[in-house]
Amino acid sequence: MGHGGDAIAELMTDHREVEEMFARIKGMPGGGQELRDVVDEVTIELVRHSIAEEEYLYPAVREHVEGGDRIADKEIADHGRVEELLKQLEKTDTDDPKMGPLLQQLMDEVSTHVRDEEDNLFPMLRQACSADALNKLGDKIRRAKSMAPTRPHPAAPDTPPANKLLAPGAGLVDRARDLITGRGRS
Predict the structure, then answer these.
(1) Which residues touch 107 (CB under 8 Å, ≥6 apart)?
(2) pTM surpassing 0.85?
(3) CB 92 within 8 A of CB 99
(4) What is the largest CA-CA distance in the chain?
């Protein structure tokens, strides 16, 4: 969940972890509890990652990158589509015929989003911000991920200040539910 380094290194490490989880899903022969466990892991990671980006990365993009409002709005819209897919996956049994297409759609959406961030947004941010600013942003992102929800909440606010106020409470409730159910312990 927290890897260290500046904001870009932190988020790119998250990207590689999700790609590894996607590879595990692609290598699974069928549904069942093993698939549910990995889908839950992916959901937890993507939700935490998205919350941290929405709380800190995109406001920094708006402030420091030329055309930052347009870029941040597009990235937040990408997150919205992913969160809706995660919500659908949460409700879908792993043996349901809809599971495979939903997972493929999720992997396609996330892969496109990751490429866009890594090829476009991150280089612009690195050019616009000092190393110290990126390091401080990395610390904020790690803190946000530690308190973020672990389940999709598509109706929740996705921009400051409302998201910064509500996400920790939702995160606390989600982590309590996860503790009780054993979700995310695989």
Answers:
(1) 22, 25, 26
(2) yes
(3) yes
(4) 49
Q: Please give the Cα distance from 59 to 74 (Å, whole number).
A: 13
Please give, one letter per residue, the 3-state secondary structure of the chain: CCCCCCHHHHHHHHHHHHHHHHHHHHCCCCCHHHHHHHHHHHHHHHHHHHHHHHHHHHHHHHHHCCCHHHHHHHHHHHHHHHHHHHHHHHHCCCCCCCHHHHHHHHHHHHHHHHHHHHHHHHHHHHHHCCHHHHHHHHHHHHHHHHHCCCCCCCCCCCCCCHHHHHHHHHHHHHHHHHHHHCCCCC
Token pair in block for residue 41:
């892991």
Please, is 101 exposed, middle or buried when counting C-beta atoms within 10 Å of its C-beta (0-12, 13-18, 19+)?
exposed
pLDDT, tens digit, for every residue of 164-180?
555 565 655 566 565 66
Alpha carbons 35 and 49: distance in angstroms, whole number: 21
Task: Report CA-CA distances (Å) from 166 to 53, 65, 104, 129, 177.
Answer: 15, 27, 30, 28, 17
Phi then psi for residue 63, to 5 deg, are -80, -40
Averaged pLDDT score across all residues of the chain: 88
- 161 cis-preceded (ω within 30 degrees of 0): yes
- Report the alpha-carbon distance of residue 5 to residue 9 in Å, rounded: 6
Residue 33: CB atoms within 10 A of its CB come to 9
Q: How far is CA 140 from the centre of its chain?
A: 15
